[in-house]
Amino acid sequence: MKAEKLLIVEGLSDKKRIQKVLSEQVAIICTNGTVSSYRVEELLYPFEGYDLYVFMDADDSGDKLRQLFIREYPEAIHLYTEHLYGQVEKTPLRKIAEILLRADFKVHPEFLLY
To answer: Once rounded to an integer, what is the mean pLDDT over residues 29-54?
Structure first.
């Protein structure tokens, strides 16, 4: 049986935007800004054994959070929005769908149409 997926994002607006695109059930946790290693461990504890994906903004705060995950959870798979958009919440839904699809998430096909 394949492990469940856990997606870590910065904020609630990122989570809502991603949920629009996904066509599968995925646990999504918001860090709500800067967090400590201890806080991340608390957030992730209920999801032990899940495949961990990190999708942060392409800005300083996103980079700091991403570095924390790289250091503490080297097995995590990192998803990147383009610097052009800066934030996940400002990334077009089509681009989010493409990013998620490349990471083997199931997405609604209408978001892949050009």
So the answer is: 89
Looking at the structure, give the CATH architecture of the domain made up of residues 5-112: 3-Layer(aba) Sandwich (3.40)
* Residue 111 to residue 89: CA distance in whole angstroms: 15
Judge whether residue 76 has pLDDT over 60: yes
Residue 39 to residues 5, 43, 68, 89, Cα–Cα distance (Å): 20, 6, 11, 23
Say what the pTM is: 0.91
The pLDDT confidence band at residue 34, using thresholds 50, 70 and 90, is low
In order of 64, 77, 80, 85, 110, the CA distances from 102 in angstroms are: 24, 12, 11, 18, 16
Task: Tell the burial category of 3 from Cβ atoms under 10 Å away from its Cβ (0-12, 13-18, 19+).
Answer: exposed
pLDDT of residue 113: 79
